[in-house]
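At this stage, I wrote out one protein, both as residues and as discrete backbone shape codes, and that material follows here.
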Amino acid sequence: MTQARTTPAQKRRRFREALASGRLQRLPGAFSPLAARAVADHGFDGVYVSGAALSADLALPDIGLTTLTEVAGRGGQIARATELPTLIDADTGFGEVANVARTIGAFEDAGLAGCHLEDQVNPKRCGHLDGKEVVGTDVMLKRVRAAVRARTDPDFLICARTDARAVEGLDAAIDRAKAYVDAGADMVFPEAMRDEAEFAAFRKAVEVPLLANMTEFGASPLLTARQLEDLGYNVVIWPVSSLRSAMGAVDELYATLREQGTQEPVVDRMQTRARLYDLVDYASYAAFDEELFDFKIPGRDA
């Protein structure tokens, strides 16, 4: 009911096994526990928590303004909402090397299955914007090594993201990725690839699992899950899609209310009460405590 029955250790082990299966793991972004419930209900393989989405949900730009406490807290709420493994965005680790180590501990305590760290400078910016800067390879190697040393569960996944493609070129990004793997990274996230050939080049050069970011309005083409699986990728994320879709509907609702004074024209596009109650699992609470939940759920048979 209130939290998943699968333990964090079990989720991490299952995520590791899934990565080794050769089947693409599909992780839509969820900006809330309720959105994560919908991810699970639609049969996906895991949940992704985007730093950009969490920043936007706080009405902040994605420039490193969120804190470890905020991100770990929200990540833990999302992770507890489903039986699926949850991968979270750690940005640059929320500080220097010691902060990276503390970040891993906080994420493990929150029940997350893994995280990705990036090689941008502080303050970071969205990976698909111009003007990014990356730290020296030696600095990122320290971040990766600190993360690997700090974890207490060996199944907690450390993913190294490189933003070097837009700054130093594809070959340099591949060289960085190989160095990050040598430092202990379990997976690599090559950010802002420009075309399918670049995704393929990364797959040919790097031996560990690879993550593809299929974000809208970015530098990368929107490849399908089938295309990415054929390319040999192991994970795909759609990081901000749910937030953008939700806020598009919110804007439409508010415009309708302002112009027409009623929500009636958009009610048929809203989530129904029955569907909401299904996602929050009212029925289980009713069965658990009949004295407290002694009502009928609209849209359900008695």
The mean pLDDT is 94. The chain has one domain: 8-239. The chain has 13 helices and eight strands. Residues 8-239 form a domain with the TIM Barrel fold (CATH 3.20.20.60).
